[in-house]
Amino acid sequence: MILSTLDLPRLAFSIRQSWAHACAAGWKDIENRKWRTAIRGPISIHASAFNKRNFEEDREDYLEVLHEHVSRPQPPTHEKVALEGLTFGAIIGTATIVDCVTRSDSPWVFGRFGFVLKDQRLLDTPIPSKTPSASSSGGHA
Predict the structure, then answer these.
(1) Which of 37, 38, 50, 58 has the fewest CB within 10 Å, making it most exposed?
(2) Contact, 81 vs 63, CB < 8 A?
């Protein structure tokens, strides 16, 4: 597990919660964007600042996809995907971008371009950061 900011990848992607948690936990293997990327390699996952409207909208979509497509023993219930369990405005994990695709068998592809993630890890302790350096902010999913 990564223990210090010195060990973190220099590039960070901002992702809205609860999607950021799904990426860092390894449940979500694609991060959707409106643009293509040639970036390959390690990234930090930044959970963007809290926005109640976005969170409420995304929570419903997130749960629907988890329950329909992700084969986890116990996907989170609506009650478990709550504010108390999520960190906002912090680096919460890392991943490696291994490809950028327009199609995939993954249930998480529903954007124009999908950044394929591998080796996702949650940090033991999130690192507060309002704006990650060298970040590429984006929407959900």
Answers:
(1) 38
(2) yes
